[in-house]
Specification:
Blueprint (H helix, E strand, L loop, with lengths): L1 H12 L7 H8 L3 H13 L4 E4 L5 E4 L12 H6 L6 H6 L6 H10 L3 H13 L16 H12 L1 E8 L5 E14 L2 E7 L5 E5 L3 E10 L8 H15 L3 E7 L1 H9 L5 E8 L5 E7 L2 H9 L5 E5 L1 H18 L1
Antiparallel strand pairs: 1-2, 3-4, 3-7, 4-5, 5-6, 8-10, 8-11, 9-10
Helix pairs in contact: 2-3, 11-12
Length: 320
């Protein structure tokens, strides 16, 4: 795009060196005629760029001129230097070096903010991957969905639902969302209803020749936050009251991914604490409590005691 080329030209020229039209054309992967037109656009916008004639001539900025980021507040400038999530860049197949981005932005920073930007870069790192990174290649559907999102193209997909059912459908992809280490595509289905599809469950995806009109009032971030809120509110809840040992108490607080603590009651002389726990389902509660053995005692509901006891007997019978 032209705007991206103009920014790249400015970044190249701010190093202070003379760059020939041919070198500029090669760097930008455009024709020399396009370079000349871009230079005319910069000049018309008030950027002091000029051409030096002769064998060693080329394009140059007026001495000591730089388009700085001084119109941004310091925190806004520093936010540009937060390290990029490499996984996100790789998943989107964006062949971009974070170091190159940092170095180019550094040219436009006021002197007083440069050291703060360097400190931020050297002291913060963003890792969006999982602890056990998969060695498998990225799902080909990711490339298809990215192209469809950027070009407003309909896509035919084969999607594997959570219950294993595979369904073919035509969707209109509106945006991609990275949630932790997973990607989701937000799309309109054939009934023009909003749906979220986990990209790793898209078995096949093929872009159609047919375009679609993107809803003018659709904002990806607002839609995602609202749908996430609705999803959390729709989750079933199974409440349990228990007494837990000091060991179980610490583990429950550490492994909050599987259970939510509703309240914490008094701790007795032997160190056991009353907790109110919330699970998605009764089955999850049974499996979770059984895993703690004799470190968790159920107070309510009373019928859950029988179910946990039955599960413990099944385990004993398995190994008998």
């Amino acid at each position: 795009m032209k705007a991206e080329r103009l920014i790249k030209i400015l970044l190249l020229l701010q190093h202070g060196e003379i760059i020939s039209t041919r070198e500029m054309a090669e760097e930008l992967e455009v024709s020399e005629r396009t370079v000349h037109r871009d230079m005319e656009s910069l000049s018309a916008a008030g950027i002091p760029v000029y051409a030096e004639r002769g064998k060693a001539g080329g394009w140059k900025l007026v001495d000591n001129w730089k388009q700085r980021l001084s119109w941004l507040k310091e925190k806004e400038m520093l936010s540009l230097f937060l390290p990029h999530a490499e996984k996100i860049m790789n998943d989107l197949n964006m062949d971009i070096s974070s170091k190159d981005i940092r170095d180019k932005l550094m040219l436009s920073l006021p002197e007083g903010a440069k050291q703060s930007a360097v400190n931020l870069w050297e002291r913060i790192y963003v890792d969006m991957g999982t602890w056990k990174n998969s060695t498998n290649e990225m799902n080909p559907a990711m490339k298809v969905m990215k192209e469809a999102v950027m070009n407003n193209k309909k896509v035919t997909i084969s999607y594997k639902k959570a219950n294993g059912e595979i369904r073919d459908s035509i969707v209109k992809p509106l945006g991609l969302v990275a949630k932790s280490s997973n990607w989701y595509v937000i799309a309109l289905n054939q009934q023009d209803e909003f749906r979220s599809y986990k990209v790793t469950r898209i078995i096949e995806g093929e872009i159609m020749d047919e375009d679609f009109n993107r809803p003018s009032d659709f904002k990806l971030s607002d839609h995602w936050e609202q749908s996430k809120k609705q999803f959390m509110q729709s989750l079933p809840e199974f409440q349990v009251k228990v007494n837990v040992s000091p060991f179980a108490h610490q583990r429950i607080k550490f492994t909050g991914r599987f259970v939510q603590a509703e309240y914490e009651g008094m701790t007795t002389e032997n160190g056991w604490t009353e907790l109110g726990l919330i699970f998605n389902t009764e089955e999850e509660a049974v499996n979770y409590i059984v895993g703690f053995g004799n470190q968790v005692r159920i107070l309510s509901p009373l019928d859950l005691i029988d179910k946990v006891t039955d599960r413990a007997k099944e385990i004993i019978d398995l190994y008998r």
